[in-house]
Automatic annotation (TrEMBL):
This is Arsenate reductase ArsC. Pfam families: LMWPc, Phosphatase-like_N. The keyword Phosphoprotein does not apply. The keyword Cell wall biogenesis/degradation does not apply. InterPro entries: Phosphatase-like_N, Ptyr_pPase, Ptyr_pPase_sf. Keywords: Arsenical resistance. It comes from the Bacteria. Residues 82-207 form the Phosphotyrosine protein phosphatase I domain. GO terms for biological process: response to arsenic-containing substance.
Amino acid sequence: MSTPDRPLDARAALRTASRRLGEEFDGTFSTETIELFLETSFDQFAGNATVTTFLPLLAERFARQRLHALARVEGKTGDGRPTVLFLCVHNAGRSQMALGWFTHLAGDRAVAWSGGSEPGSQVNPSAVAAMAEVGIDISREFPKPWTEEIVRAADVVVTMGCGDACPLFPGTRYEDWDLEDPAGQDVDAVRPIRDDIRTRVEALLASLDVPATA
């Protein structure tokens, strides 16, 4: 894997990540495709990262998601589960809470991703705390951009305040959720937003014929 302009430890971590992804997607994608997705994912996070220690791990996680999406788009995989993409501006509050609720309520009966038009540097601490109050841990999530293959792989794209910056592809079902932005808000202010998102996610799951866990 060619990464000559990166620190030695990052290069080693990316090589290890490339091997793991190669084993996971063996027979689905070439080594070149896997390395391209891994390198571009790394570069997307490196642009505004303040702490670089975990960049290779974030790049691996995001590359894995993108490769799963590409496999779905190209018809190389498909288990019939509906896939939903939650998009907001910074992918730090609303879309992360929606992802947390969806994953919690749908279990393994559906797939959800999230992204932002201008990803922030971290998930909103008030959103993390508010979700923790209802037993959902989103502390390990991280703001990330949307990519074309991820949008195309989604059956439903839910937008939350990203306006014209949100991608539009023909044939994809879109919903726009008018939600208050939790950025800069304390936990008391975020709780009603959290609860509103739960109600909307439950309605979305019902429309997809996915039974929600109580």
